[in-house]
Amino acid sequence: EGLAALSLVPLLLVGWADGAVDPAERAVILKAAAGAHLSGRGRAQDLLEGWLHRAPPPALFDIWAGYVRAVVAQLDTSGCAAFRAHLLGDLRAVAEASGGFFGLGRTISDAEAKMLAKLEAAFAA
């Protein structure tokens, strides 16, 4: 279950990038968790709930990046591209969840954009 929760780390890192996970970001993260069959009770859900209330420790990025490298090493080119595209789509959904004012203006903060770039770079490492 811990490995399943690890798959949500990048979503949480984007949510926390600007200092707090707001309700709209939380809803997107919880929807992704349900899509990954992590809703309900259990160790993964407990980890997720904890990380929604307290930012994950910085070392968790390095653990997640190692996970990505291991997954990517097992995939062919098209599988890697699909994995990357799916994840980056989910990350953008979190970043865009609370941006702008009534849907106008910039939707991704500078801090979120930096975190998106850092997470994307993990695929190239």
Secondary-structure element string: HHHHHHH
> What is the C-alpha radius of gyration, as a whole number of Å?
14 Å
Average pLDDT rating:
86
Q: How much of the sequence is in beta strands?
A: under 5%
Task: Report the principal-axis shape.
Answer: globular
Counted beta strands:
0
Query: Number of helical segments?
Result: 7
Q: How can the largest sheet be summarized?
A: none
Low-confidence stretches: none
First-to-last CA distance: 26 Å
Helical percent range? 55-70%
Class based on secondary structure composition and strand pairing:
mainly alpha
Describe the structure in your own words.
There is one protein chain. The protein is mainly alpha-helical and 125 residues long. Helices cover 68% and strands 0% of the residues. The protein has helices at residues 2-6, 9-16, 23-35, 43-53, 59-73, 77-97, 110-121. 29% of the residues are buried.
Q: What's the helix and strand layout?
A:
Elements: H1 2-6, H2 9-16, H3 23-35, H4 43-53, H5 59-73, H6 77-97, H7 110-121
Helix pairs in contact: 2-6, 2-7, 3-6, 6-7
List keywords for this structure.
mainly alpha; 7 helices; 68% helix
Describe the structure in brief.
The protein has 125 residues and is mainly α.
